[in-house]
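Appendix B: a complete holo record

For completeness, this appendix reproduces one full record from the ligand-bound portion of the collection. The bound molecule is zinc ion. The inputs are the chain sequence and the ligand SMILES; the output is the full three-dimensional arrangement of the complex, encoded as structure tokens. No fields have been trimmed.
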Amino acid sequence: MLARLVQMPSITGHELAIQDFLSSELAGLGLQIDRWCPSRDELATHPAFSDDGLPLGTRPVIAARWRGSLKGARSLILNAHVDVVPVGDERAWSDGGPWSGAYRDGCVWGRGSCDMKGGLVAAMTAIRVLQNDGAKPRGDVTLQCVIGEESGGAGTLAAVMRGYHADAAIVLEPTRLAICPVGAGAASFRLHIPGRAAHGAMRNEGVSSIEKFYLIADALARFERDRQSTFSHAFFAPGQLVAPLSIGKIAAGDWPSTVPDSLIAEGRYGILPGENMADARTLFEQTVSEAAKSDGWLREHPPTVEWFEGQFEPAATPPDSPIIAALGKAHKKVLGSDPKIQGVSYGSDLRFFTNNANMHAVLYGPGDVRLAHSVDERVPVEEVIHCAEVLSNLIQEW
Ligand SMILES: [Zn+2]
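The structure of the chain with zinc ion bound, as generated:
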């Protein structure tokens, strides 16, 4: 099953074929299928919608419900995104290329194997195994197969907006079977830094926006360090860079011998767990304007900050949440030792459950996130099987 799913190139925006396949597989498991195509008009009414500009309307989301026998019993959502990121240069991949789904060295290889079709197959297997044993859950178990995670999370947001809610959710991201109840957020920013043009031969007549940028960039680097040094959290290792501030793109000037009169820099600003997005943005803007005040030119011609595209809030489930205890117990039963509990510095669909659906949720799944999005992505089959065992134990306990 995992190999077949990897062989379907479900790059974000092109999820229809894999969702057709999964609809019939999940219906074959006796699950009740709710399948719909979210629209942009509908999603845009939600403040958490992050518009990636990709077409919508032909990209179905699936919620497959295994109906519980007891009304009011504890329910569970298992969430997996079916979309994958592009593969880069196909020639860089070893034997078989990015869509092989080959089984080698104990792993299934190919784009999406680790992020996160391995987790999806673990959930399907857990349900199938319990059904073969004649088990029936007391509360609803709903497997969500969502689209668009890699570019902002349209699918999970659509499921939240459709009213899906449970007593807990597990997002099956590759965590090497660590329980991750906390994730940092990120906000994309665009800085405009003004200068004044002059002939480069008389550069003192002008003001270089590039030189002024250094000043702001230094202030932002200090800001990142200060934020990090005052942050501590039980789920992050001491010294771990939890909320990186990284500038990814710079454009300035239009001629080699002209002093550049404007600079635009774009980057991502990490939002700390527990931090409010609006407050975090204000701190950033204050840092830029404080730095500008220390400079004669920038004081008169202040830089501006724009927030655009990806705005991902941080997510957190409390450490004493019942789902952490129950999942930890199921993990220990299968693997013989307590799982690691840790936070992650990247954004994921976790935030829609914790922030928008008012639920407890964790990331938990097979595979190493460092192999996600990389060449020769793969997932150890043993970890997928362990994850399936843990999930089936969890469903019984829960
Ligand atoms: Zn993922």
